[in-house]
Records
---
Amino acid sequence: MNRIYFDNAATTALDKEVLDAMLPFMTTNFGNPSSIYSYGRESRLAIENSRKSVARILNANPGEIFFTSGGTESNNTAICAAIRDLNCKHIISSPIEHHAVLHTVEYYACNKDVTLSFVKLSDDGHVDLDDLEKQLASHEDRCLVTLMHANNEIGNLLDLHAVGELCKEYNAIFHSDCVQTVGHYNIDLRNTPVHFISGSGHKFHGPKGCGILYVNENVKIHPFIMGGGQERNMRAGTENVYGIIGFAKALELATRNHDEESEYIRSLKDHMITKLENTIPDIQFNGDITGESLYTVLSVSVPKNEKSEMVLYNLDINHICASGGSACTSGADQGSHVIRAINNNPNKVTIRFSFSKYNTMEEVDKVVEKLSEMI
Ligand SMILES: Cc1ncc(COP(=O)(O)O)c(C=O)c1O
């Protein structure tokens, strides 16, 4: 039986074209990019061409793009640099960030390197910008604001421009975890007031283990990983050449067909909302699902009972892949810190469905049918 994969916010299938672009760098073109002979120079050229391509798509300078091992490393690097190199003494974040941000800011706050506060959220999970401004105004020391562009569990989108302008006004550093939006939205960095953004290749049909950190050219930071002089002395370690090639190729493909693919994926989500409303009367949607929301993510809660408590397991038995929250909590119902923060209802079970261009309307129908049988 074919599997239905509705967990594209956790990771996506690698595109065949991406694999084809990567393969030569796993086989014949294996040179170390730091080697001076031709094998090495070919790898170096491929990396720099990838950087140029990524920079062009995101409207940044190539010098502002650093390749990393993924979203987690990019988030860690930005937060560490803001504290260590940019004199940030207070962090403003939100309780619904990915753990790659949340655990990092908590670590620095626990070590007494900085103080930490969270912005208020509206009932549907949006950041309260008035509260953000109040918090910025109440701190004399420089602040780091780290807020995600799109929430990976409920899909809510942040207004990067509005937050960036506030940060500018209060001389704060602004980092945004854009892992769920790079490759899914047009991001124009030259015209977005942000100091750091993080992206990850495996969220848009690229390879796992390769991401980017954008560092605005006006910001000067020290490396997070020490060692060799790779990534212009900013990120030591022999480059993940095929990962980098794959990241750039995947971003190119995502951009090339963006309008039609995003419209198609949005129609899957809309169809699922309508079907669920018509089939499961007690269904509850989490977040601002039809407003400022990722077109790829739909989070629902259903009343808790003996059957629904086992829902992810039963979906799996029916060859349907979905998750309870972020990927880290898939399969085990440990509860989600995001759902707890916006709606602490212990009598509900939450399921996140997330879609890609490879999903179909028939799959949506099938999943809704199975779900309604289960609960
Ligand atoms: C919003 C968000 N940030 C960060 C990450 C971590 O990215 P990576 O898996 O590339 O380390 C993820 C992945 O689940 C994510 O969804």
---
Amino acid sequence: MTRDQVFEFFRRLAEANPSPTTELEYSNPYTLLVAVVLSAQATDASVNIACRPLFERIDHPRQMVELGEDALRDAIKTIGLFNTKARNVIALSQALIDRRNCEVPRTRDELQSLPGVGRKTANVVLNTAWGEETFAVDTHVFRVCNRTGLAPGKTPEEVEAKLEKIVPQPFRRDAHHWLILHGRYTCKARLPECWRCPVIDLCRYKPKTPPPEERARSTAARTASRGSSATRTATGRTASTPRANRSRSRPTRLP
Ligand code: SF4
């Protein structure tokens, strides 16, 4: 995309959602850090369901350590990888008590030195808690950036580096939220909803998904054409389409 197209891409996402933010529920930088650690390979909705009652009682590293690993594991057992995550949350809470006087760090290196905190988690905390212009690349951001041609890359790190380079002001601070929300609700993994996409004319993805009515019409047409290809045998019984043709005539899965 050209610089003007990148600007227009974000201008439209910003117009549709002027104040994007994380969908994780949290009350302070510490609970945000915990929620983001718990959200690895899990949905924000599942993390919120588990954390709502937990964060009513616990919003400080000391309280978490007092709660203990067993009770935490029980509280988050509906979230994937809960064993490892419970261990990491207790360990990172203890590290915050020992090294940071219970404060959540404001630098990437310090954040990434905590148990269970990788680059993506650090980027989310730096951005959402501390207002830094960071670009957390999760599965949604990775997909949107590659599909659209906005910031193609083979790895999340490559995509992040490209976003760093191309995203203009005044969109840098909220860019990753717009991209996540766009991927979660419009440019979905199995079937992007191109017919209602605000950046459809800027996006390089070729097999654009048509509106549902149009897809329903083509499905009906395909079904009708399969019906008419059936042949009548001499005995009056309907012969099914030969196996080789059947497999050819299966509807192609939409990308
Ligand atoms: S046009 Fe389709 S593929 Fe492109 S960004 Fe929009 S939803 Fe995604």
---
Amino acid sequence: MEAQRELAIITGASSGIGFELAKLCAQDGYDLVVAADDPAIDQAAEEFRRLGATVTTVQTDLATLEGVDELYRACGGRRVAALLANAGHGLGKAFLDQDFDAVRHVVDTNITGTLYLIHKVGRDMRTANAGRILITGSIAGFMPGAFQAVYNGTKAFIDSFSFALRNELKDTEITVTCLMPGATETEFFERADLMDTKVGVDKKDDPAVVAKDGYEAMKAGEADVVSGWKNKLQTSVATVTPNEMLAEQHRKMAEPGSAKNAKKAS
Ligand SMILES: NC(=O)c1ccc[n+]([C@@H]2O[C@H](COP(=O)([O-])OP(=O)(O)OC[C@H]3O[C@@H](n4cnc5c(N)ncnc54)[C@H](OP(=O)(O)O)[C@@H]3O)[C@@H](O)[C@H]2O)c1
């Protein structure tokens, strides 16, 4: 009799980095439970099935506890071998110009929903004393993000949380890995209304490469991976740069209208 394949949950698998992570899981022999908030998740699932995985899709808002409960139920009590908590989104413009419901949705998706899912699945992993957790943080967590202030704050939280949880689990067989991408060519910037900014129009990293870096780090049980040498350099410099200076640098990349500076520079 064929052994049952292991199960992986991938959130935010309908596009970008999560889509590539889910493909890597499928290629590596996992069955998948994948989630996103719109019907594109069903199209994405077709691609994962072509790679040999049995796929369950969940279309739900992971900013809500109910949405996370729905995703957890979709696993049908099967042991989760890998949790790739990747769903997240940004929000451009000045904080005081942002709609507060939209602000809250960033926090609820990137932090609250992510933590709730990790809490539920993590407890099961602790009972089984086995599991791999990959959390998509960001190098944005190293920089106060003028004109994406809330988003960068959520990623600072997630980067920090990931290392702390890893430490709490160091005497178990559960590993926690933080993937910290730099600017990556996905739907992120359009969704965050950042297409009139320098970072929105600049050349970015390939999501397939970023996902591969994260996936390999997760499989190796590493603590973190900053994808790409330029981003590695940027994060090293950020750790010794005053926050006020970092915020000013971020303004140059993310201020509305800064896209024209990118064109002038190139
Ligand atoms: N792109 C970058 O430059 C970059 C850099 C560093 C870190 N990251 C992080 O990488 C992760 C993936 O983003 P991406 O760049 O691949 O962007 P993306 O192409 O926009 O993908 C985001 C994914 O998350 C899902 N998602 C977002 N909010 C959700 C919610 N409330 N409920 C359910 N699903 C939700 C989206 O599905 P729906 O469309 O259905 O909502 C989509 O599948 C995010 O955590 C992001 O913060 C991105």
---
Amino acid sequence: MMTYNAKAYSAASATFQLASTTIPRRGPTEHDVQIEILFCGICHSDLHQVRNEWSGVMPTVYPIVPGHEIVGRVTKVGSEVNKYKPGDLAGVGCLVDSDRTCPQCKAGLEQFCPSLVLTYNGPDKYLGGVTYGGYSNSIVVDEHFVLSVPGNLELAGAGPLLCAGITTYSPMRHWGVSKGKKVGVVGLGGLGHMAVKFAHAFGAHTVVFTTSPNKKDDALRLGADEVVVSRNADEMKKHAGSFDFILDAVAADHDINAYINLLGRDGNITLVGAPEKPLAVAAFGLIMGRHSLSGSPIGGIAETQEMLDFCGKHNITADVEVIPIQKVNEAYERLLKSDVKYRFSIDMASLKSE
Ligand SMILES: NC(=O)c1ccc[n+]([C@@H]2O[C@H](COP(=O)([O-])OP(=O)(O)OC[C@H]3O[C@@H](n4cnc5c(N)ncnc54)[C@H](OP(=O)(O)O)[C@@H]3O)[C@@H](O)[C@H]2O)c1
Ligand SMILES: [Zn+2]
Ligand SMILES: [Zn+2]
């Protein structure tokens, strides 16, 4: 198989920093789209996996090239590709392949396919080894897994829609977030701030729970109707038993029972945050009020396109701090301190000097 070299940043082990490297990419086959990556968002999942914090579920294979919030321009397409042509804006999220034949794929829910291939650290059936993600200047992806990015969206802020966007959009659609519903968002980071924008756009009464009092004004600007500093027990108590739905987007250990107790009858709390350690759940918090606790992973390709089109129509993008790739390790340290406003987006032009 024809390959070419792409520039990238990779980590050699869980304790190494990300550093400049070159990686092989396959030359586009007949169904492939080759994309010049212009921006890639930094998801907290990148950090979890670079540090092998999900070793029990998906152990990291090194070297790892993270990145699944990719936007760029199509440079080349295979002979059978008809959805894209060179020059088009294109996006790639967390998925680059699946079997396309199982019931989940047939239902357009590729995120549940037993043979789904993640954008990085997934089995690469073309080149062997594992897939390499978006901290790179180029990527080649089957056209089915390439998304069309609305032309009116600011590109640096559009990248994060491919993971943070769909991961929050999908469960809120599934659980019927809409006008008349009271909705909570826990953790105002990359995912959380997108959840606030969507909940607001869907017309729900939106309440942000944050551990960072200094994010209060931003939360209101992003579309929250109310902001609760979650470390303040009195503020929390005021909302007891009142929520239809809560989205928990926290990346670290925290007390989820405090939020379960804020649900109204038949209320649901959905976890999208994936902390390293298991969370403790008190049974009575669920029993009383017939509350439910669930989780949700990203979204399928069709819904991801629906979300991007929705964002195009409502001019929704992530609030980003654009950084050169040379600052990626520093950005990771800031994520750990909840010091993110509200997504880092890597300007891939910075790879040219490597
Ligand atoms: N389910 C999926 O498919 C999926 C997809 C993408 C990401 N994720 C996961 O979702 C989580 C969030 O990702 P992200 O990229 O949005 O991360 P992020 O930008 O780092 O945001 C996480 C936020 O959680 C809050 N937080 C952090 N530490 C906390 C603590 N000890 N106690 C309470 N709150 C804390 C902070 O918000 P405040 O400052 O407001 O408190 C922080 O900004 C990660 O675990 C990530 O792996 C899951
Ligand atoms: Zn992600
Ligand atoms: Zn499948």
